[in-house]
Specification:
The chain is α/β, with parallel strands linked by helices. The chain is about 45% helix and about 15% strand.
C-alpha cells in the first residue's frame, strides 16, 4: 500500500517513518523546500531519539520518499495522512487554516478514490467539515474520511508509534471501506493484540483531547500536593508512591515538576475548554487545571528568590541582583528540543527582571538556539550553551528545570569547586537531599523536607 503523509513536523515525520518501517511505501510531503532538502541530505529537523536511524534505513531501502510536489504524491497514493499544524489562536481556538488549505489541494489533485486520514489534533466536528470540503471540490472523486489521533510522547515518539497501547479510528457509521483500509494498514498491530477502537468521527476527535486533559490534570494535581507537602512538612515522593500503588490511580504522571508544557497539553486543554463553552457545556475541572499549572510555574520563579534570600539572610526583593544563575534544561522535558510553553520560558525572564545574570544549559543545540531566537529581543542578556561546566562556572545559584540524563548524573561533589555559591534549586527532584546536604549544599526541591 502506498501512503502519503502531508506535513513533516513531529507527528508527520514520525508517522511516515513508522509506516515505512512496517513495510509500507511512504511519500512524505511538505511545502518547505529547505526542510525536505535537509531531510533528504540526512539532517532531521527535530530531535527525537532513533528517528534519524529509521529515516535513513527506510530511505536506503526505497520505502520512504520526500517531496514538495503535493499533487504527484497524492496521485501516487492510496491513503493520505494529514499531519499539519493546528496552532492555537489568541482566544484558544485551533487555527485550521493549514488543514483546510491542504484539504482543498487534496480534493483538486485526487485522481481516484482516496482515504483521507486526519492525524492532526482537531476540534470536534472538524472531520465532518473536511469531508464536506472534499466532496465539494473533489470533482466527483470518492473520499473516505478517517479520524486517527496520535498519542506520541515527545522524546519517545518512535517507541510509541511502534508500540502503541491502543489505536483509535473514527469513521462515518456507513463507511465500511474506510474501516477495511485502516485494518489493512494497522494489521501488524492487530496481530500483536493491540486494541483497535472503532468509533465515530466525533468520539475519536474528543478522545484525543480527553486523554491529554486527564494527564494534564494528574500533573497539576501532584504539583499541588507537592506544594502542600512543603507547607506541612510531608514528603511528596512517599505520597506519590502511596497513592500510585492504587491501581485505580496508577503511578504515571505523579512526579512533581515545573508544570506541564510542550506542544500538546497547554494547547489541547485550552482548546477543550473553548469547545465545551461553544457547546454550552463548560468543563470546570479543566479550566481549574489550566489556572493551577500557570500559577504553579509563576510560583516557582518566586520560590528561587525566596530560597536564596533565606540562604544569604538578605531581603528577598534584592536577593538575585547581580547574581549568576545557571539554569539546567531549557526544553519542557528531557529527550526533546521543544521549548513551547516550557517552564524556562516563564521562569528565566522572571529571574532576569529580578536583576540576575542567567546562563542556560541544554544538551541539544537546537533547544538553545530556539530559546535565544525566541527571547533575543526581550531578554538579550541571556546566554545558552551546550557545555555544562561553562554554565556552572562561577554560578551563585543552580536551577534544575529539565530531567536530562546529563543533568541527573552530575557529580555535585566535584562541581562544588567551580561554583561561586553552593545553592541548588531542583524542580525535578533529581537528587538526594541528604547527600546534597552532606556535600555542603543549600538544596531545595519540590515537596521534600
Amino acid at each position: 500500500m502506498i501512503i502519503s503523509v502531508i506535513g513533516t513536523g513531529h507527528v508527520g515525520l514520525v508517522t511516515g517513518a513508522g509506516f515505512s518501517e512496517m513495510g509500507h511505501t511512504v511519500i512524505c510531503i511538505d511545502q518547505n523546500q529547505d526542510k525536505i532538502t535537509s531531510i533528504i541530505d540526512g539532517s532531521i529537523p527535530i530531535y527525537e531519539p532513533s528517528l534519524d536511524e529509521i529515516v535513513s534505513r527506510n530511505k536506503s531501502s526505497g520505502r520512504l520518499h520526500f517531496t514538495t510536489d503535493l499533487a504527484e504524491g497524492i496521485c501516487l497514493s492510496d491513503v493520505i495522512f494529514i499531519a499539519v499544524d493546528t496552532p492555537q489562536l489568541s482566544h484558544g481556538q485551533s487555527d485550521l487554516s493549514q488543514l483546510e488549505s491542504v484539504t482543498h489541494q487534496v480534493a483538486k489533485a485526487s485522481n481516484n478514490k482516496k482515504t483521507i486520514v486526519i492525524k492532526s489534533t482537531v476540534p470536534v466536528s472538524t472531520c465532518r467539515r473536511i469531508d464536506r470540503i472534499l466532496r465539494k471540490y473533489g470533482n466527483g472523486t470518492v473520499f473516505n474520511v478517517v479520524s486517527n489521533p496520535e498519542f506520541l510522547r515527545e522524546g519517545k515518539a518512535v517507541y510509541d508509534f511502534m508500540n502503541p497501547d491502543r489505536i483509535v479510528l473514527g469513521t462515518r457509521s456507513d463507511d465500511k471501506d474506510a474501516k477495511r483500509t485502516m485494518m489493512k494498514i494497522y494489521e501488524p498491530f492487530e496481530k500483536d493484540h493491540v486494541e483497535i477502537i472503532y468509533t465515530t468521527l466525533e468520539t475519536s476527535e474528543l478522545i484525543k483531547y480527553s486523554a491529554n486533559a486527564f494527564l494534564a490534570t494528574k500533573v497539576a494535581f501532584i504539583n499541588e500536593m507537592a506544594n502542600l507537602c512543603d507547607a506541612v512538612g510531608a514528603n511528596i515522593t512517599e505520597l506519590a508512591r502511596g497513592i500510585g500503588l492504587d491501581n485505580r490511580i496508577g503511578s504515571s504522571f505523579l512526579k512533581p515538576g515545573p508544570g506541564y508544557g510542550g506542544s500538546c497539553f497547554p494547547k489541547d486543554t485550552l482548546s477543550l475548554t473553548v469547545q465545551a463553552q461553544e457547546a454550552n457545556c463548560p468543563v470546570r475541572i479543566i479550566e481549574s487545571v489550566i489556572n493551577s499549572n500557570s500559577s504553579h510555574i509563576r510560583r516557582l520563579g518566586r520560590r528561587v528568590s525566596d530560597f536564596c534570600a533565606e540562604c544569604w539572610n538578605i531581603d528577598c526583593k534584592s536577593s538575585l541582583l547581580g547574581k549568576k544563575i545557571a539554569v539546567l534544561g531549557l526544553s519542557f522535558k528531557a529527550n526533546t528540543d521543544d521549548i513551547r510553553s516550557a517552564a524556562s520560558t516563564v521562569i528565566i525572564p522572571f529571574l532576569i527582571k529580578q536583576g540576575a545574570k542567567v546562563m542556560g544549559f541544554d544538551p541539544v543545540l537546537s533547544a538553545t538556539e530556539k530559546f535565544t531566537d525566541q527571547f533575543q529581543d526581550t531578554i538579550p542578556t541571556f546566554e545558552a550553551k551546550t557545555d555544562l561546566d561553562t554554565v556552572l562556572w562561577g554560578a551563585d545559584v543552580v536551577l534544575v528545570l529539565t530531567e536530562w540524563e546529563e543533568i541527573a548524573k552530575i557529580d555535585w561533589l566535584k562541581k562544588r569547586s567551580i561554583l561561586n555559591s553552593p545553592i541548588v534549586v531542583d524542580f525535578r527532584n533529581l537528587f538526594n537531599p541528604d547527600l546534597m546536604r552532606k556535600y555542603g549544599y543549600h538544596y531545595a526541591s519540590l515537596g521534600r523536607p
